[in-house]
Amino acid sequence: MKTLFASLTLALTAAAVAQTTLPADTVRIHYFRPDAAYAGWGLHAWEDTTAQVAWDKPLTPNGEQGGWLYWDVPMKTDWKKLGFIVHKGDEKDPGPDGTLTPELGNQVWIVSGKTDLFTARPDTGVRTVGDLRGQQAIMLGRDLIAVKPELAQPGAWLTLHVSPTAGLKLGAEGVSGGDTLTLEEVEGGMTPALKAKAPYLAGYKLLQIRAEDRAKFPAALRGQLAVSSVMPDGTVLDATGVQTAWALDDLYAYDGPLGVAWQGNRPTVRLWAPTAQDVKLRVSRPDGSQERTLPMTRDAQGVWTASGDQSWKGLAYRFEVKVYAPASGKVETNLVTDPYSVALTRGSTHSVFADLSDSSHKPAGWNALQKPALRSFSDLSFYELHLRDFSAADATVPAAERGTYLAFTRTGSDGMKHLRGLADAGLKAVHLLPTFDIATIGEDKAKWKSPGDLSRFAPNSDEQQRAVTAVKDADAYNWGYDPYHYMVPEGSYAVNPAERTKEYRQMVMGLNAAGLRVVQDVVFNHTAASGQSERSVLDKIVPGYYHRLNVNGGVENSTCCSNTATEHRMMRRLMVDTLVLMAREYRVDGFRFDLMGHHMVEDLRAARRALDALTLAKDGVDGKQIYLYGEGWDFGEVQGNRRGTNATQLNLYGQGIGTFNDRIRDALRGGNPFGGLQEQGVATGLVAVPNGQPGNDSAVKWGQLADLVKIGLTGNLRDYRFTDHAGQVVTGSQIKYGDAPAGYAASPRETINYASAHDNQTLWDAVLLKTPANMDSATRVRFQNLAHSYVLLGQGLPFSYAGDDILRSKSFDTDSYNSGDWFNTLDWTGKSNGFGKGLPPAEKNEANWPLYRTLLGNAALKVTPADVLRASDHYREMLRVRSSSSLFRMETAAQVQQGLSFLPAPTGVIAMRLTGATSAANPYRTVVAVFNGSADAVTLNDASLRGLTLHPVLAKSTDPIVRASKVSSTGVTVSALTTAVFVGK
């Protein structure tokens, strides 16, 4: 019987079943359920399929054969791999991602509940109890195993089976082959400490390796493991594979050097691979030629070591790892790069013996680099920028340097002039989308494909997206949330991939010279691949360790890819070591954590401790000035602390780590990323100019959203007390955002306030969607400016998406991660803003095409250079206002409670008063910011407003409406859709 995995125990029918002959560009997936309950089950497919498949829109079955459902999946003519999952909503059957390659044919059979895949139809009448490919037994330490209660029945014989050759078999009488260790149930079961370690296993029973067998277990970890439960009468209750990560932590966690270390000119390379049966080192020239294989030595901690001489410098290397891989059920011999690589060949095929301290890797002046001054984290502000977006279309950058690190060294380019102008106005940092080695962008630029000139198509045509989609996996573009190697800069962003370290450092120097600190977007919550996939690294070295597994042993993918498990000590260490290396070797000033809520709070604490230990004298960097922030969303398998205390908005209270404030984002824009496309918010016309959609004229709704904005203006403080829209004195946490508390921060520095980021529509696209269709562009600009005013003048750290200050549009693309230069390009000249480039790619946007088609075809929605200039001027004026006084940048919750209050104001208006003692950082005793989002001018009369004057920056504003803001003996008057700031000394 031919199967993908030798451990398969279902038998084929006695009579051969005729298999349908399919076209070469079609794959058929067969699926069998014993209960025949097929309703709602669909197929998710990816890799080399030509089908456009979304998780919420799976492929529907093409038919049924002999009680088996099947799907015919269209493939590229030269397909190499198909990934697939059978699922019903979020329920997967059986769970792990399926993979099919042409060598195995173009049909596969799946039986519900079994992880085995067949390349011939099995007989579903012959079934066994258990599944060795699944891993439902979970080790919690060196000798403890958690199992489902039904496995550990009273009187059952509990056995741990071990085979270094992956020779375990499952039959009607249970598990055969290999050796056995005896297990016994632990009286009292899961202890409080174990439940805290693995809350999702709280209801499991606990087994322990019998004392006389425990010494044998460390060696057993280097082979196949299974647990079986058999009653004295021979009845098999269950049999399953074993997850071993916590046992590896207990036995083999290691704190010594990894990767390449140099002693003089002599390199030593180390790899942590405790479950490997053998590891060899392959050394070659960078092109892979003249390769030789050398032995490596294993120590007691599972670290494999080899040393060389000075001739190795600049040579390439890989590891040959012989290891049992649960993903295939076999002992594999993997050729794999070093997860601690600091240099790579083009295309990331080999690691390179490189010493980053060599002068060849350093631009002139690197050792003497001076950082832009930073008084406090509270002074930070961020501008989120994709590296290729910055210069791909900038004609003032040499063609060879467009889309590269070196574009940031061109001080006279349009892009660098723009960034320098923002820095001069008060911007503090550029946040770069991922720049580590990425799995989804080819580094051989000669092979890049282009959609060609698409300007000939109508502004609301679908032709542009069709052309972009056709080359999307072969062009130069991707956001880069596909980690391949964490410690090496991405080669496609280098003019010369072999010089990527030096070029990256040149970029950092260029930005620092412009007065801007550099933040890296880091993605430690997942990798691009796992198992035996081509671009899998970690899982080919220590299978099953670095990734978070579900209770059946499948890799969790709630992040979209293969989730990592930083709760495991060596994955946490890889994350922390990467941060330290990037800070020390590349002088990075901050890190933004993608999907930070998928890490544990302790992971972030460990990162903070390691960075704080860096000093100028020892490391060339002051680690205490490195800021950490990220996405504190709570979802997936970690939601509700199910895997431990995860790094969410609420859990990070008091840690000094920032999280993105979605409360103010949604309140300003209206709706949320999951709905409410035309729902208006505080800064998009709610009540002021209703767009005709239900609820957009509700003053009550405006008051509710205004409370979220006010809390945001305090830095989203949990305990800040104020009077809400209903006249009740409440704290920030008592205001609700859905079912969650709105306020959650302990200090302003724990909050990142924003109205737009790379995810979802740009701010300008949101304004276009939500404001009435007949509104003129100058009025729309005032709404956009209002949103920026709230973000830039509030407590907390302001964050903006690159180009939002110049009305950037992506033609409504809600997720442009792979939409190419065409939909993502920035035009720093202000001559165009990206609107009208055609319907955005169907993959993420097709459901809204009817609305988008109408708007994109409306020529009146195009902006003028004057519109762009007004938006740009306003943004910079608000930055200057923020920079003018430390009252906008308070440090503590106590300071905010004492020094920030809200004045009575009508619907559509928020008036914020700041007070404090004057100092070198604060020339004003009183500051009042009036945000008038209503359709009429407003006059506020309050004793605290007497004697104030219009802020000197705004008194010279390029906007005459702002300059017309009035101060009287009793109050102030501010025009409609205008932000004015008044000060008093």
Automatic annotation (TrEMBL):
Residues 447-843 form the Glycosyl hydrolase family 13 catalytic domain. It is an enzyme of class 3 (hydrolase). It holds the Pfam family PUD. SUPFAM superfamilies: (Trans)glycosidases, E set domains, Glycosyl hydrolase domain, Starch-binding domain-like. Its EC number is 3.2.1.41. One of its GO terms (molecular function) is pullulanase activity. It catalyses: Hydrolysis of (1->6)-alpha-D-glucosidic linkages in pullulan, amylopectin and glycogen, and in the alpha- and beta-limit dextrins of amylopectin and glycogen. Residues 1-18 form the signal peptide. It comes from the Bacteria. GO terms for biological process: carbohydrate metabolic process. Keywords: Glycosidase, Hydrolase, Signal. Belongs to the glycosyl hydrolase 13 family. This is pullulanase. It comes from Deinococcus wulumuqiensis.
